[in-house]
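Q: Got a minute? One more chain.
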Amino acid sequence: MRAAVVEKAGGGFVVRDIRVAEPVGREVLVEVRASGLCHTDFTLAGRTPPGYAPPVVLGHEIAGVVTGLGPEAHEFAVGDHVVGCLVQWCGGCPACLDGRPYQCTRPASTLRDPRHGPRLSRDGWPVAQGMGLGGFAQWCLVHENQLTAVPPDLPFASAALLGCGVLTGMGSVFNGAKVKAGESVAVIGVGGVGLNTVSAARLAGASRIVAVDVQDGKLRRAQVHGATDIVNSAAVDAAEAVRELTGGGVRHVFDIVGTAVTAQQALAMAALGGDVYVVGLAAGGPGLTLSLPRLLLEQKRIQGLIMGSGHPRRDIPRYAGLCAQGLLDLDGLVSWRIGLDEIDAGYAALRDPDVARVVITSF
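A: Always. Here it is, folded:
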């Protein structure tokens, strides 16, 4: 099959013919129809992180059709439309049994037993599979726990976004913060994840939704998705602007960027007793310095959220249903559809503030 392979850190994506194994155990073979470009994969492609040493096939926002099943896979049937998710969960540890698969203590149980050989290989040598998915390819071979069925009438390009950007952005509002109607929200960074955070805040009935970014194009798009106010933090003091707009700060702040600077901004934007949620994590940067007296006296809370504290099998169908009802516009997030050999150009396009998401639809 054709796959975009990272052969050396920082060397970009090169399309190669590689071999995908037959499914064993609880593995499912999926013909990939759409694969989204997430910045996390771009970051991994420039490094050599543990477990993903080149050669590696990245890509974790996938949607496709089931074409093969291992003998122990019982969750799906050939022909089902599915969405992949990078959350690797065993289903049997205390966290999974408690409905917290994003905190699974045995994620390696979703990987292939080495006795069966690698899932992906080239010229007899193993090719690593990013996040258990490896979705920048014509097919992906994945443990059934990393897949969720979706309605067959949901467009593949839109469906691909559900397993990462949508799950993270919307889940941060619904599962992490549990935003209530009438509460106020600020979202720092309104790219793909941030736009879904804005949409979720709108659906939750937030009274004020302040979008904060350094690019006017992204801020205009955030207004389309439900932001009531916008702040360009490259032009003004963002925390001061948010406090002025809201009369003292907001109840919930979502830091989608994840730097020391944006986290400090988020704490300053939060009202007395407000909550800050760190959703993104930018590469590198210094740690966050906290004033314990201020944290105590202002009664604020700061919490990290992984994948929107989401349960893929519960939340992905819910968000797909919102699309079907016309309450969530994922088609509008897909700015550019590309071929498998255009990944480098696709990531370059994401630097354009008028481009929301780029999705591979031709393999």
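A: Residues 2-149+330-362 form a domain with the Quinone Oxidoreductase; Chain A, domain 1 fold (CATH 3.90.180.10).
Q: Perfect, thanks.
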